[in-house]
Amino acid sequence: MGFLDGMKSLFAGGGSEGAYSHWVYVRCGRCGEAIKTRIDLRNDLSQRDEGGYVVSKTLVGSERCFERVEVQLIFDEKHRVIGQEITGGDFVTAEEYEPSSDTR
Ligand SMILES: [Zn+2]
């Protein structure tokens, strides 16, 4: 009990915004830069005719290149991700986005 809630607030920084945020981590297919974006589950989602929600985002890296990474996520009615597509890059995990140590 409470474990998942604790995890959620941990990842979201503990704010009340966290419950309505879904973070997406990608890696640019051209330069390899890691990019993240926040999806606001209250404002960014569009309802689908067949049920659930869909959101599209375009991510652009900060400086190295201007490649656009297009992502589309599909959520069910309970805001769980049930599908995702990406062009121009790859999805990565939060751990891959922010490696704690990368010494070689
Ligand atoms: Zn890039």
Write down how many β-strands occur, each being a DSSP E stretch of 2 or more residues: 7
Structural class: mainly beta
Helix content: 10-25%
Low-confidence stretches: 9-14
Give the names of the bound compounds: zinc ion
Rounded to the nearest angstrom, the radius of gyration is: 15 Å
Tally of structural domains:
1
Spell out the helices and strands N to C: HEEEEEEEH
Shape: globular
Characterize the structure shown.
The radius of gyration is 15 Å and the shape is globular. 13% of the residues lie in helices and 41% in strands. By secondary structure, it is mostly beta strands. It starts with a helix and ends in a 7-residue tail after the last helix. Strands 3-4-5-6 form a four-stranded antiparallel beta sheet, with no helix packed on it. It has helices at 3-12, 94-97, and strands at 21-28, 34-40, 46-47, 53-60, 68-75, 81-87, 89-91. Bound molecules: zinc ion.
How is this structure best summarized?
The chain has 104 residues and is mainly beta.
SSE order and pairing:
Layout: H1 3-12, E1 21-28, E2 34-40, E3 46-47, E4 53-60, E5 68-75, E6 81-87, E7 89-91, H2 94-97
The structure holds zinc ion (ZN).
Tags for this model:
41% strand, 104 residues, three-stranded antiparallel β-sheet, mainly beta, 7 strands, binds zinc ion
